[in-house]
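Entry under discussion copied across for reference:
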Amino acid sequence: MTQYRGLDKPRGQGYFLFWKAVFVGIMLCTVAFFWYASSSVEYIWRWNRVPQYFWVAEKTDVRAEVSGDVVSVETTAEGATRITVKGDDGSETYTVPPAGKVLISGGDYIYSGDPVGRYEVSKPGILLEGLWITLEVSMLAIIIGIVLGVVTGLARISVNPALRWLAITYIEIIRGSPLLVQVFLWYFVVGTLLNALFEKVGLSAIPPLWYGVMALAIFTGAYVAEIVRAGIQSVHRGQMEAARSLGMSYAQSMRKVILPQAFRRIMPPLAGQFISLVKDSSLLGVIAVRELTKATREVVTTSLQPFELWIVCALLYLVLTFTLSLCVQYLERRAVR
């Protein structure tokens, strides 16, 4: 009779049903714990106020810039209202959009600064703006980090001593210092020097967002370089020898033989690095970049709703990272085919 041990032993249907039930039980206990804990805290939950921070409709006034009489109030073919005010210095015309409300009528006398109409403007709220900036910063840093990491990874295994030592120096310095310190150095040191130089030559200053992008990209590039280096070295050297024996140059062998095989192996660690990058972008709030975490902190300060807003912030980060993880898994499956 065959003896099975460990993972070789076949599992019956009851085994999987039992452990699925254990998982469901653990999740239900977790939900019950948080429900009981939230009920025990003296806190008023106001989830109904959260949507206004995603999309907001603001009322905007159309104000007169001159004092005088309202000589005409006309409706255009598009449905807008055109208001003409005649003052001592001439006439001024103001337009209220079709969905707006006219606050005056013909023959009225108005003063400079008085509202003549009002309309609503719908726009993204502060949380959506912060989410967009987080996504923008992360994508830019990922693209630059990939390019920098691949170049540095190839230099790391180069036979050229200058390239290899430069790559090692870059990797060790970046990986050996905290990201927050690097963000401060980029913004307060590099940013101050560059903006002062640009001011002298008459150019505009670089926004803080780009210093944050460079800090994240250079930080990520150091880790991507080591991932690329490990992936290339994991491919058997016989692959390079076979490619060179077929008449390929070193660059052709890398591009057509080694890198495609290494790419499939480095996808999982790259996904983890990119997910960490999205979360690390929350540090850019210290240099006045209004990404998702800083936007949430500002809303919490004004609304006094820390529980709801920080939970929403965590869920938004989860959506970003989970989506990125699915994209990398899709690319990994395509690469295996």
Observations:
- The two ends are 40 Å apart (CA to CA).
